[in-house]
Amino acid sequence: MENQVLESSEERTFQYQSSLPSLPVPALDESLRKYLDAVKPFLNQEEYQRTEDIVKKFEHGIGKELQHKLLERAKTKKNWLEEWWLNVAYLDARIPTQIYYNFGGPGPYLEHYWPPKEGTQIERGCIATWHTLKYWELIRTEKLAVHRHGNMPLDMNQFRMLFCTCKIPGITRDSLSSYFRTESEGECPSHLIVLCRGRVFAFDAVHEDHILSPPEIFRQLAYIQKRCHNEPDGPGLAALTSGERTKWAETREYLINLNPKNLNLLEKIQSSLFVISLDDSSPDGTPEDYTPITKLAITGDPTVCWGDKSYNCIIFSNGTFASNCDHSPFDAMALVVMCSSLDQKIIESEGRWKGSDKVRDIPWPEELVFTLNQKVLNDIGRAKELYAQQVSDLQLVNYAFTAFGKALTKKNRLHPDTFVQLAVQLAYYKLHGHPGCCYETASTRRFFHGRTETMRPCTMEAVEWCRSMLDPSCSLHKRQQLMLKAFAKHNKMMKECENGKGFDRHLLGLLLIAKEKGLPVPELFTDPAFTRSGGGGNFVLSTSLTGYTKVSGAMVPMIHHGYGFFYRIRDDRIVVTCTAWKSCPETDAEMLCKNLFQSFQDMIQLMATAHL
User: Fold this and answer.
1) How much of the chain, in percent, has pLDDT values that exceed 70?
2) pLDDT 10s digits, 252-291
3) Cα separation of 144 and 158, whole Å?
4) Strand 148-149 with 206-207, pairing
């Protein structure tokens, strides 16, 4: 009895979900004032005047009506944005989402016990898989600690989506299926899918109520690897997930009609815990240069990655790791938290399994053999060709800046994240000669099912500081003053965004409510200033901090003449991943990175010399 009392008084992962505050709808006049402030860097006086008139007209006209309708919607939903965001940001997309929407990154384990070493794929893979299964168990039993901001609990819903979750292609819109259940909710699928050399295998990760041990997982993976290496390659069905969405939806329908058994096999993949991708590549990687691994994380072999799964754990032939994730069910934060936890566990166990070598009598993995015909094989072939063509255009660098990191920026009383963001602004300005409209991810997890808000770092304050840095007649003292002003503005805006007082998602809500009610698109959204400043997903710089961790990430740019920019900040280093499209003559990820590292030095130098 005492035991029961103790157990029930323990905090549970999802216990605060229902008491989290609803996502607020900001005041219309405030959002419009912030919007006008954000478009300033991209307009001349005359253009700004025109936009200001359009905004005023909106505020006192149709905007009022739309705001009222949005407030009505918010009364009936704890998160007025959630369903819209899922559809508009992810599920409505028709272009290949695996390339243009998924995120991925390298495993950090090479920094300690697991440097690249041939022949370690299965040995390390079984340990990493076991730690991942233990993490699933934590979530399933609700023993994963609740995240907090200060003492405020944050929304934990995204962690439900790490496992047993998959996107299903649709003709006009995809859908999201999650088969995950906590222990108190009931049964949860417990099988894994393994993709290797174009073939698909499945095995249960739980036997007689116990998770398989690393030696047992080793036996399963070694069996699959041996078969795949000694027998002909499979058809590579997974490549279909990398294609254009409507095309994949049609092929999937065709597959199901070809043989109803194919549907059962697809559902087996969809409901699986996650996918283990056994990849034959051996990308090199060091703590200072992760480029080859990160590049393969997001542009690797499409036949061993199920692009619609919420988590593909990619294990390369040389024992290096990567991940590739569908973005619709969660944001990178959820994966980063899990991989950081795995990293900790691998360090604690020195990269080895120290438990029993005993292997129980468990069923061998089964191969999922689909009924295919020439048409499907042709579709697979075409998907592979298109994928190869599209990813060959991606330029990616993932370098560590090692001169200093968080310790020194904090010593200078500069917020580390803001430090990197302003350096990005300066690097872009130097390289391109004008300001770059920029998206930075802000988290809204203080609210029920909160995900992200757009924070726009390209402020007038940032631009004025960038200009001062390029103006030889400007004094060091003046430059430092302008920089600190830009820091203060950025920090204030980030706080507002995290507190539900950003304006981008609000404007999107007003646009969507107009569309839903069959009203004409307000002029605010057709005004060139809207797109030029990044609105409607047109940011030249798409940036995200993956935290003060060892886990890097990567995404492709939001637009053709843009950059994708992920970074992480450690005490002694700043690690950045920058992407651009080779077919765009004016962007260059390598050059932006070089300029960025120089900007880091210039900014810290400015703090040191401006005092003298």
Assistant:
1) 98
2) 999 999 999 999 999 999 999 999 999 999 999 999 999 9
3) 13
4) unpaired
Asked if residue 396 lies in contact with residue 550, where contact means CB atoms within 8 angstroms, the answer is no
Interatomic CA distance for residues 578 and 569, integer angstroms: 15
Give the model confidence (pLDDT) of 30-43 as tens digits: 999 999 999 999 99
Query: Angle CA(388)–CA(333)–CA(270) in degrees, nearest 5?
Result: 55
155 beta partners: none
End-to-end distance of the chain based on CA atoms, in angstroms? 69
Number of Cβ within 10 Å of residue 112's Cβ equals 14
Distances 388 to 193, 239, 298, 299, 497 between C-alpha atoms, Å:
24, 11, 12, 8, 38
Q: What would the two tokens of residue 318 be?
A: 């040389």
Please state, rounded to an integer, the average pLDDT across all residues of the chain. 96
**Measured between alpha carbons, how far is 438 from 427 in angstroms, rounded to an integer?**
13
Collapsing DSSP to helix, strand or coil, 367 comes out as strand
CA pair distance 142, 8, nearest whole angstrom: 11
Residue holding tokens 């292609």? Answer: 169
Spatial strand order of the sheet with 574-581 comes to: 394-401, 574-581, 563-569, 541-545, 438-443, 452-455
Burial classification of residue 413, based on how many CB atoms lie within 10 Å of its CB (0-12 exposed, 13-18 middle, 19 or more buried) = exposed
pLDDT at 80 exceeding the cut of 90? yes
Longest CA–CA separation in the chain, Å: 78
- CA atoms of 505 and 7, how far apart (whole Å): 40
Tokens found for residue 547: 């935290």
Which helix (H) or strand (E) segment holds residue 439: the answer is strand 438-443
Active-site residue identified among 131, 327, 449, 490: 327
CA distances from 101 to 93, 98, 128, 326 (A): 9, 6, 26, 7
Residue 327 annotated in active site: yes
